């Protein structure tokens, strides 16, 4: 009993320490955003701010182009997520339910495409977009993010579709459903947790991408929020308070999206557990 109690206390302590290590950078960012420039640059850093100011948030929100950058980020991110989910579902169902020559080889190509560093494609994709006349246009950035998230989406959804017995679709077809109707009524609802999981990854990948947005979108009216964050740093100074406040604002949409899909994921899993 004593040994098991000591083990639980040790594991609990280790878990708390790991959690604090992950949470502390976020806490540092939030507290720094609430400090004045003098407090941020002070060599004596207060873990708990003695005085709070929202001047950094006002500076970030009133910075020229914030609304435009936010709109552009939402357009390309949500568009890439929706496109990757639609294409990923179609590809996953085809690879899981149909048998054709070269299927396993294609799956390996999808995995290799996911493992390859996406930044290595910057120059080829830039030349391709330039020749196609798609530079400084949001659809080109949406296509880039779609290409970046599709391999992982396809691979993950393939595993989820494989985990759904095909017998359920066959039973629905025996009851009068077509193949498409059986997929829509049986497989797709059971696939909801997988769609939520992959959408979170796709959203975070597209939302945080900086390099392609910076290189492809030279017009400031077409740039995204990651590029907007870099505007707080100039050749002569760095507005650390503004960067911290902007980072907090930048993290809010991703946090809201995660909370929404997390609730949906939990509700789907619970519904599947209680139905009999």
Automatic annotation (TrEMBL):
Pfam families to which the protein is assigned, alphabetical: BPD_transp_1
Highest taxon of source: Bacteria
Gene3D superfamilies documented for this protein: MetI-like (1.10.3720.10)
Membrane spanning stretches: 9-30, 74-95, 107-129, 141-161, 182-207, 240-261
Membrane topology: Multi-pass membrane protein
Family: Belongs to the binding-protein-dependent transport system permease family.
Name under which the protein is recorded: N,N'-diacetylchitobiose transport system permease protein
Organism: Amycolatopsis roodepoortensis
């Amino acid at each position: 009993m004593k040994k098991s109690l000591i083990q639980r206390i040790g594991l609990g302590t280790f878990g708390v320490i790991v959690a604090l290590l992950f949470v502390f950078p976020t806490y540092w960012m939030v507290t720094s955003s609430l400090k004045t420039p003098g407090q941020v640059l002070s060599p004596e850093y207060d873990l708990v701010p003695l005085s709070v100011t929202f001047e950094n948030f006002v500076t970030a929100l009133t910075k020229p182009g914030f609304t435009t950058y936010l709109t552009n980020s939402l357009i390309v991110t949500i568009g890439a997520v929706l496109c990757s989910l639609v294409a990923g579902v179609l590809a996953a169902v085809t690879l899981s339910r149909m048998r054709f020559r070269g299927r396993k080889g294609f799956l390996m190509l999808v995995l290799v495409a996911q493992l390859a560093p996406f930044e290595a494609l910057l120059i080829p994709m830039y030349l391709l977009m330039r020749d196609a006349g798609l530079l400084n246009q949001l659809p080109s950035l949406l296509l880039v993010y779609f290409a970046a998230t599709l391999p992982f989406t396809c691979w993950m959804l393939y595993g989820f579709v494989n985990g759904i017995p095909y017998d359920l679709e066959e039973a629905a077809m025996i009851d009068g459903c077509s193949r498409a109707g059986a997929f829509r009524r049986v497989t797709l609802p059971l696939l909801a947790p997988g769609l939520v999981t992959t959408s979170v990854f796709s959203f975070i990948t597209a939302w945080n991408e900086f390099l392609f947005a910076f290189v492809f979108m030279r017009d400031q009216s077409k740039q995204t929020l990651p590029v907007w964050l870099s505007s707080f740093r100039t050749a002569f100074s760095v507005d650390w308070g503004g960067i911290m406040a902007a980072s907090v604002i930048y993290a809010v949409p991703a946090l809201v999206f995660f909370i929404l899909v997390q609730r949906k994921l939990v509700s789907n899993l619970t519904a599947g557990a209680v139905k009999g």
